[in-house]
User: Fold these one by one.
Assistant:
Number 1:
Amino acid sequence: MDLNLSDEQRLLRESAERFVAESYDADHRRKMANDPSGFSPAVWKQFAELGWLALPIAEEFDGLGGGAVEIGILMEAFGRGLVSEPYVATVVLGASLIDKCGSTAQKQARLPKVADGSLKLAFAHSERTARFDLAKVATVAHKTAQGWRLAGSKIAVLEGHAADEIIVSAHVHDHQGPSGRIGLFLVAKTPSLAISDYERLGGGRACNIELSGVELPEDALLGDGHDALPAIEWAIDRAMAALGAEAVGIMQTLLDTTLEYTKIRKQFGRPLSANQVIRHRLADMAMQVDEARSMALRAALKVDSPPIERARAASGAKAKIGKCARFVGEQSIQLHGGMGVTEELEVGAYFKRLVAFDTLFGGSAHHYSRHAQLGRTA
């Protein structure tokens, strides 16, 4: 297997790293942290002009037809700059679900708008009692004469406050009662949709949603009504692979920053990096970053494999990268000494994003358990 990047992939990596280095500095991140939207519409427009929003969308819907590896290259660059734009929510989750489940008319109406930046999406699936069990959905969609009526609540909806349309999962109740199927519904913002948003640890925003008798038309159901659980599992595994690549970018930045700091910081007249113990700790950090990068790439390469193989790769990557991320973050904080927890340095901001990564879609313990369970199933 040739794991070397193609010429197009190398160009994508270089352009993304250059854009992030030029556009995302400490001042920009502080400005976005204080902005109610949590991201810059001007930067989102630049994403569209660069073709990044169209990257995984099929060419027939004005996309570029890229895959998970290209998404990973882009997300690693985003991690280096702590990018807060709703890329995962709109492109990796929202557009993927529409492409996977939607009818031709639904795809034609939305995917070109995602590609040109005029439509932002979010995916509302997590619930308070689910505990990362994707099959556990209490929200209900009742069939009515006019269409559908949704009732329930969702939590931790990534960038839901900024979305033009939210994809909501719900158990379908037709005229015969509970069908046992999970459906996906396209919900526009209405007064009956109560949204309470909040700042996420490490940048970006999320929200909780209360659905109280939300009335939807017949065509709000995504696709033909088949059980959407396999598609949800597929989309979440894709998102975990993308977030793993972002975590690798964050860890690489922490490693580079810490290495530079230990060369400059002197103690007893010698640089910190002159001490053998410090060198060993830096070497351990570098090993963890390389291991995490390999796991993220493996998860990206497996996104279109059979379900159990794909899910094991995604859970294995999430568990291992989460463990590596905590180690690299803690070592970086410790090697910076007291400066590591101050606002003057951005080490703390990067560490917060890594902590947020470890808890998103389930922590390391959850995914070690899921990986083992899938292994027994296989």
Number 2:
Amino acid sequence: MQIGSVTPEQFNFVAGMPIFLVAVFAGLGALGNGLFVGVALYGPLLAVPVLFPSTENVIHVIPALTGIAFGGGVVSHGAVARMREGFEAAIRNRVALAAMIGIPVVLWLLRLAGAVHGWILCWGSVLGVFAVRIWANNREQRVIASEPDVPVEWWGVKRPWRAADKEVLDHAVTAAR
């Protein structure tokens, strides 16, 4: 946008690689994924060499490694969609959602009061949110295991719809043909 024109030379292999990596990592399904990944991936890539100058050459390899790690068949959905799937049980559970919001807020308030330092805030927030995620996923699995068998017609009505339900229905439809 700052140049004011678009030419093919601006999108050569090296210049277009970050755009491609954001698309691979974020997926092409939602607009917000690209913004999230752009900030999450390239924000630290700009900050780390300033904080640790000796890592300047290593930082150039990280986008390529990210593309390799997440490149296997995730272009349609992206790694962000995969991460969101892991948090769906916690988002549906009101207690878990409140805890995922509350833990970082409480740690931030403790940081403002000077009771904890920045690393406790950072790692406490990350570990707290992931602990809540694990708790919510385990709790949902126990609920699913204890559910009575519901007829197919009532899936999504008398019990929550699950991703595995689509696969079961797809197999049933293709087997009937």
Number 3:
Amino acid sequence: MNPLIAGVSTDVTPYRNRYPDGLPVGNLWVDCTEMAPVVFPFDGSVIAQSPVGHVDHALTALSASEDIKGEVAALSAGRKRAVLLAVRDALAERQAAFEELLVLETGKPLVDCRTEVARTLTTWAAAAEAVAHTHGETVPLDLQPAGEGMIGYWTRRPAGIVIAIAGFNYPLLLASHKIAPAIAAGCPVIVKPAPNTPLATLWAVHLIRTVLAAHGISESAVQLVTGGVDVGEALVADPRATVVSFTGSAAVGHRIAKAAAPRKVVLELGSNTGLIVAADAVVSEAVDAVVRGGFYANGQACISVQRVILVESIADEFQHGLLERLNEVVSGDPREESTRLAPVINTGSAQRITGWIDDAVHRGARVLAGGSARGAAMDPTVLTDVPQDADLWCEEIFGPVVCLHRVRDVGAAIQLVNRSRYGLQAAIYTKSLESAFAAVNELDVGGVVVNEIPGFRSDIMPYGGVKDSGIGREGPRYAIEEFTVTRMAMIRP
């Protein structure tokens, strides 16, 4: 076992593993001959060398899951609940250390990493609660003459092996939203973290496996394999994998869905989130929503504010108020308490974002603030008059950029939000119940938020999108349903 990391100082401390070397495959940690650097996005320094898995590791993990899926499926509700609560406690005991590690590997401000860990703890506790509600119901088979005298009921049964592929932006939370429901459902799970941010997930999986062993359960119930596209393809396409749960880009999600067919996929694929500000909105509150919701996690959140659609009568007031408050989005070292915006994950991402900005400006958009990059660092950026067919408007920016657009009324705003291939969440600021319910009923998205940022997410609610934002729902109770199948019993006594 390698030594624990010392406290994070103003200089990056080389990360020391908090878990054995190699990868947690089967009941052991297997050796890896290849390592890859994990880089601190703020200054490019290397904080650790992470093991790189290969296809053989993936296939070994699948075989181990296959061997123990019956054991995991047979776990009682009480044992599953006990494990989930014990994992929650193990994570909570190390909360500050996880926060520091997440800052180093994701580059997100400390305030956002604290939020991620707190939400992770809620997710594990919610999964433990949901175990008691995973049940079926009776069916009146005697509704038809042939069923007279028969008893019918259905139950939920574990679907089988879950493949959990998480994004780089919230590595601990996104993995937990897959691992915890898989345990609750009685499914073995194989996790593949994003190559840029594997460390917190590796450590969490070690803690989970330690808890499993302490409860007399095979550590093979939760495994982790790192690696490239070939590893992901091997996990997804293997017929032993029953459910694939993926968080990431739409392009990759589409490929996963094809490779996994006809088996089940749960896809959370991002969005170009819209926020509507109605004529009767409290404009200062809507401005505050964009300041809070447009730049958190360095803009690298699926439901951060991207498109702000303003009813014409309040547009000037909103724009002036937003530009006045941008100085509150303090850029700097993500380890500092005051920082609200730090560099994006790497320079390639920044170059893509600034390329989209340049293209939009060339086609008539105006930059009101920010707009350029220094390496991976960007200031909070606001544009207006962005063409509706520009990537900056149509695609997911995944950076600290907000686009403003003016319309005549709420009806036109709803139509504009819906003219998108995405549909994860959207929001409206209004004092009118009529406008609020119009948004709730007419916006073609998975979730509608009224008078709060569109990035609001409770970890117990059903979360997911429509159209190219994906299929299926997360949130422990709802993910358990995704990871189980109904089994019908029809009995003639």
